[in-house]
Structures are given as C-alpha cells and as structure tokens.
# Entry
Amino acid sequence: MVQQHQGKWYEDAAWLVKTASEEAVAALAAIQSAGGIKKLSDYQILYDGQWQRSVPTGIAQGVFTNFSSDLLFTMERLSTNPYAIRRLHPTADALPFQLDDETATALTGTRVKTLHEDGRLFFVDHRYQKDYPTTEGKYVAGCQAYFYLDADSNQMLPLAIKTNVGSDLIYTPLDEENDWLLAKAMFNQNDLFHGQIYHLANSHAVAEIVHQAALRTMSGNHPILALLDRLMYQAYAIRPVGEAVLFNEGGFFDQSFAVSNRGVRQFATDFYPIAGAFRSNYFEENLRRRGLINSTYGPDLPHFPFYEDASQILPVIRRFVQSFVDAYYETDAMLALDWEVQAWVKEANGPAMVIDFPAAPLEKVGTLVDIITHIAWLGGVSHHVLNSGEPIATSGALPLHPAALYAPPPEQKGVKDLLRFLPNEQKSVEQIALLARFNRPQLVQSQETLLHMFNDKTLLERGRREADFANERFMMDMRKISEEINAKTFDEEGLCQGSFRSCFESLWYLHNESVNIWSHLSVGLLFLALTIWASFPALHGSFAFKDADLRAFQTYLLGATLCCMFSAFYHCVNCHSEHVSRRCLKLDYLGIACNITSTCISATYFGLYEQAELANFYIAIILACGLAVFWALLDPSADGPRAAKFRAAVFIALGGSGFAPILHAALSPSLTLDGFSLEYVVAQSAFYLLGTAFYVNRIPEKYWSGVFDVWTVKGLHDKYGTIVRIAPDELSFTEGSAWKDICQPKPGHGPFDKWTIYLNPSVNGAYSILTSPTRQGHARIRRQLNHGFSDKALQAQESMFQSHVDLLISRIREAISSGQQDLNMFQWYTWATSDIMGDLAFGESFRCLDNGKDHRWISILIRQFQAVVTITSFRFFTVPRKLFQWYMPAKMLEQPREIHKYAVEKVDKRLSRDTERPDFVYYLQRENKDNTHMSRAEIDTTLSTLIIAGGETTAAFLSCITFYLVQYPEVLRKLESEIRTTFKSEDEINAVSTNKLVYFNACVKEGLRLTPAVPFGHPRVVPPGGDEVCGQHLPGGTKLSVMAWAMYRSERNFKHAETFDPER
# Structure
C-alpha cells in the first residue's frame, strides 16, 4: 500500500515539481531585472504574473493590499491557522506576561487585567521555538502574543507581541511602523512553522495509526475498512517522501525554514500528546476547549471564518458517513455483533495506543459515525486548512510571512531597515517554490478534490445503493457550499463575510425580515414617485405652486424617500456581515435624521408662512442640528458606548429644534398656530413615537418570530440544508437520523418530551394517545392499544375489511353506471375508512357507504379537528388568541361536548354487547379490567381520536396513491401485471398474500413518502442541560421537530424527490 501511494504521489507530483522549478527561474529573473528587492512593495514583483501554472488561483486577495493591516493579521489566527490561539480563562489562566496599564489603556481603553477578567483576552504561545535547533544563517524568535476583543468596534485586534529572545522586547501597535511590522513578521514566522508541522501530528499521525489498526483487524472485504481506505487516499506517500526530500538533512525544509529538520521531529514529539488526542480534537470540542465557541466566560467572536466555513462542511461529511454506516448497521445490537469492528477498536486502544480513542467495546452506531467523520475531517478539511494550497496563498506569502529570519531579532526598537531580516531574492524564490509544490492544482482536473472525497467506484460498488445516493447528495451539498463561498466579495477594508447577491435575492423569499424590508421599500418607492412628480412641472401642471413652496414640499418628500430607502437597504444587507451591518445601520439612522430634518423644515416653512425671516431663523437652527446629527453619525470618533450620550443629545436637539417654532407661535400673542395644523403635528408625532416603538421592539419579528416561514419550511430546507431555525428557539430537521436522536430513548440521557403547547385534553379532561404529554402516559395507552392493532387481531377481522372494500367497489361501479363522469375519490375513500374505523372502534359501521353521505358525527369530528389546529396556532399570538376566545362561535364551543356525548354513547353501547369480536373495545376490556391501565375517560377520548387518525389519514393516502397511479400509467401497468400474474382470483388476495407483492409494497412505501399522514413534526423539547442531535449540541429547552413533508421531498434525501418512483 505504501509503495502504491508513493508511486501515485510521484506520478502526480512530477509535473508540479518541474513546473514550479521553471517558474522559479522566471520569478528570479523578473525580480533581478527590476533591480532586486529594495523595499517591501518589491516582493510583489515575485508574484505578479508569476506562478500561473503551479498556483493558477494566485495569492489570496488582500494579502498585498492589506499586508500591514492589524485586522488582517488577527484574522489569520481565526482562519489560516486557527489551532494556535486560545481565550485566556479569567480564573484558571494566569497572565502569561505583563503589559503596562498605560500602553494597554491607550490601545484598548482599559487594562489587560480587565480584558482578562471580561474574557476578552486571547493568547498565542510560540515560545518553545526559541529552543529548537536552527539551520546556519537563519534565526528565529519565540513569540508570544496577546489579542483582544475590542468593546467599541467588536473586532479582534492585536495587543502585544513578546519575542522571548535577546532583550525580550514587547511590541505593540503604538510602536513605530517598522518595529510593529517586524514584530508581526517574527510572529508570522513562528506561526508558519507551527501550522506546517502541527498538521503532521494532528492529521497525518492520527489518521495513519487508526487506519493501521483497522488493517490489522479487518478483512479486505469489510465496508468500514473500504471507507477508511478511501479516506487515506495517498496518505502513506507523505512520510517516506518527506523523509527523502523534505525533512532530510539539508533538504527543502532546511533550505527555507529557520527551525531545522531536527526541530521538526522534536516539535512532533512534543505536540503529539495534545495534537494527536482523538476525541478531544473533534471539531467543535477542540474549539470549545480553547474558548473560541460557546464560551461561558467571554463574549462570542464576531467573526470566525474557519468555524463559519467548516461548520457547513463537517455536517455534510457526517451525513454521508451516517448514511453509509446505517446501510450496514440498522441497530446498535448489529454493531455489537461485528467482531471485526470490535477488534479494531480494541487494537486502537491497545497496541496502537491511540490517545483518547473511544473505548472498547463499541456500543453505539453514533460513536462509529463520530470516529469515521473525524478521520474524514482530519484528512479532508483540517489538513487542507494548514497545508496543501493554503501556505502559498496566505500564511507563507512574503514579505510578512518569512519561513526564517535572516538576522537576529533586534536588541532594541527603532529598526530602520526591515529587509535585512527578510529573505533576499534567491531565498524568497526558494520559499515560494517550496510552498507552490504543495498546491497541486491538477487535482481539480483529475477529480481528486474534497468534492470527490467519496466518489470512488471501488467504494460505491462495494457499498449498497444507499452509499451511491449519499455520495450524490454529498457532492450536491458541497457544490452549493462552494458556490456560496465563491459568491462572497471583499469590501474596501478587505473583509469578506457575506454576499450582497444573496442578500438581494432573499427579498423574493417570504419571511419576517423580507416583509419588514418591503414595508419600507414600498413606501420609499411611493415617496420617490411623488418626489419625481413634484420635480417636473409637466407632471403637476394643473397645480399652481410657488417655487419656494415647491422646494419646501420637495424637501419633505426627499427626506421621507431617503428614510424609507435607506432603512430598506439596511435591513436587506443586515445579514451580510457585522462590518456591513454596522456601516449600514449608520445609513439607516442617517435616513431617519433626514426625515426628521426635512419634516421640521417643511413644517416650519408652512407654519410661519407669513413670517419669512422668523421661519428662516428656525430653519437655520434645524439645519444646524441636522448637520450635528449627521456629523455624530459619520465621525468615527463619535462611535462606541463612550459617545452614546453625545449622540442622544444631538438627536434630542434635532427633535427640539422642530418644536421650537411651534412653542414660539404658542407663546407669542402676535402669532397663531393655525399655519402649523397642530392636530396634524400631534398626529405625526404620535405616529413617529409609534413607529419608533415598533422599530426598537422589533415588531412583529420579535413576538411573532417565524410566522411567515411556516408555509415555506421546505423552501428553507432546500436553501439552507437539513437543519434550519424556524423560530428563535425552534429548529426543523430533515435528516433521517434525527428521528432516532430525538425520539429513541438513550441511556444516560434525559427524554425529549413533547412540547405541551400542542397538547389539548378532551372536554372530559382526559388525554388521548396522541396528546398524552408524558412518555409514561403515552406508553401506558399504547400498550393497551397494541393488542387491537396486532397482526393476529387485524387478520381476525379481515372479513370485515373485505366486506367494506367490496361495498366501496360496488358503490363506485353503481355511480359510474348511473352516468357520473367525475368521482370525488377522497369522499368515497373517507366514507369507506370511516365505516371501517367505526367497526374497529365501536363494533359497528357508520354506514357512510350505504347512505352515500358523511355521518354527522364524523363531519363534526373533522371540523373540530380543524378548529383545534387553528386554536393551537393562536397560542403563539397573544392578541389574536384573546380576540378568538372572545368571539369564538357558540357552535364551536358546543362541538366538543357533542363529540364527547356521542363517543360515550357508542362506547356504552359496545360495552353492553357480550361479544368475542376482536375489535378495539374487546381487547381494552380484556387487558384493562377495572380501568387499571386506562380510565374510561381516556378510552372515550382515544377511540374518538382513532377515528380521525385512522380514517381521514388513510383516505388522504388512498386518494394520493390513486392520483399518482393515474399520473404514472407505466407504474400502473406494472402494478396490474404483478397482481394479475400473482393471483388467479380476488379470493386469493388477503393481508398475508399481499406481503409477497414486491412492486405493490414498493408503491405503498413510495406513496407514504410523498404523502405522509402528518406533514409536520410534533415538536419535542431538548432536556435540561442540552443534548446532541445529528452531531450538533443543542441547549436545553430548544424545540425540535422533523418535518416529514420537507424531508421526504428533499433532493438531499431522495434523487428526483418529487417523482413517484416505486423502484427507488
């Protein structure tokens, strides 16, 4: 295997090595012809127009344009090497080094101790590198660095860098530009080494040893080994190739990096106990442990590019692994019997000595999925974040990312020449060429990228059909993620956190925020039309306006237009990124200020129409206050909490300037308030206050969150994936494994109880099997009903079923014979299923088929069921619920009592008959003597519920399956052929004989997929303390549901999901 991997690697790498060598000669010639490197910007010559074959996508955007940016420097710690930084715990971690309060306050507005106590202080420690052996002529620092989360800008920024060598200088952004740039270059040199060698201990070493344990214990035909083999594609080439040409004495690494090959080995040994631990380095667990996500002792990071992208990719990988594993292990018990897998886990914990590997025996399928997903993560994502094409594009890009220092770190600050510390022309080309060799752009054409992680003929042919479809779904999801990431753009500050295109496309999707946007945009467009109308005399020629009057009117219209349009724009791009959101929030406030200013100006102009000089005086004051507001909004020094009082003061002054002329007119005996139309001013002020109240309190979205999304949950899933948030505390799932995670009891875990908002007791105060709020109550009722639903009980009543079906067919034939052209099949099926459920529940039919119409009680029951759904929905909305309760029709209040009364009569009648007929009541009598397991009230309520649950849903399914068979005549013909060739007469058809009809049962399953009895899931609640669903940890109290309709019609779960295909 090692030889195969090594041979394939050399074959793939031959072109790249040759190409990079040729391009190195060209790059060196280019910089020499330009006169060499004389200043920092000259390093760009080494890249411009160079390396176009080995690095066709070029250097990452912003690396040159923003190379001196402190924000870029910080974000590299959260993107290109996210494995070195951690948040310092306020009590568990002492401050690694001291920074004087004066410097810290000048940079952050507070002391380092305060940042530490607030959980806003972050730390990177590369001090160990100063003790590693180095190559001759190269130098290294051992930098430690503080980063902090700024309270005003909410950005992560660098605070200080300590070198730990020589004079042990501490650098900060307050230093001279050259000193601070050198400090960042020294830190980047440490960080580049860390990232390149850390990935060996974290991904290569761990994946290899786990796979080798599998090779020693599993047969070559085992599906889990086949999957692991695919994940280890070419993995065993790296170690021998690295020993031969990279980490050999004087090899490529020694030629470019300061730390020698001996230091590489020492690092791997030192860091393997931490970097090589298995479970503690699971994606989210690793980040939680370092305080980067879900921190309990500090604020969330505003931006975390690594987490944001990886948290999209990892669930897609896990979904494939889950589907693959589920195809072989339907239950935990089946996994427990697989002695090869158990031997593998035992080997990993024993001779292989994998650190922190799941313990043997392996009892849970979910744990196996965790293991394989982590191996896929290490080799397919984590590895590429640190290695492959990343260093050449970002973390190894010159001038500020040298692999070595070429002069000792200075003993004092005041460096004038940075170039003596950085690589010269020859060494720069060597560093770039080395990193370019890791890029391997040809993998796109050879289909060996992450997109094709599981797209292997050997793997998929050995697997089952589920694996083939899971791979198609994986590739579809990965393409979508790629499209979303590629759609992101950079703003003028080099930030990339969202897509404007996606923001604007969301306008056409109905949800709370888009309704909010359109409410502003539509009014803004109206005011814009009025502004245009007022600006062209040809359009308003019939109105006689003075020029001054028209300008005053236009001022008002323009202010209102800007207010609404700016507000619509802000809410539209608010989800783009925090940076864009902050900028556009100012634009939103600017629009409000424009509206207030223009309103006050026009009101003053017309209110003091006869006193032009006085009007101009107050208009000047209003303009001055408006300009003060504009300045407060646009001046960066007026940002942040410290300027909050000033901003509030200027806004109050602007509002006061508008009321000043009104107050003047009210107090002056020579003036009147007639010109101000005081009632309109009061009304306008009231509307302003009302609008502000709505705006500040986020009405309606704060109180009616997700109400507009209820109708488009499937659309949400199609767009955003298998887990979507449909309310602040409610999630919807379309992942099959969610059923098991939510509904199946798990040892050591609390139950996911039903959300009681949907549970309504009957008029008699009893709960049915569907509405029982507790697991114990549901299980108790279910045990009693199981007897009546057993195969034995239902087969004993087959003659009853057959008689109703025969009657249904007979009545349909009669209807056709009588000349009816169109038949309402749902109505006919409802009559038949109601009669059957009546026989099953009460021992006698409702005779709907005989009478050719609905039974009155059934009609009332269905209407009441619909009313209950409506009433339950109103529970989310306080005001509508109160109104509905006040104005609820009396008939609706009487219906539950009438339903209950009839059910009691039917049950009494059935109980009075001494019969051995095995209907539901018979078994309830036999198994529930003296009402010890189910009360009489529960029996009455449950039997009424079963009439709807069994009758109406079955009728709906039969109607839909009939529709699909008519729509797909080829399916109907194949189904007819199977039935006619299997049975010689109708008498042979029964519940047992139909089990052997393969195509018939496939049609039934496909019909149930497309028309689930209940399209939405009954929400459950995550137990206190939280739990994990589909690999995601969720806090306690979160509401969860599996949306059956969306899940069964998702292209992620079924190929051509909307098509009726029994052969899938």
The first strand starts at residue 86 and ends at 87.
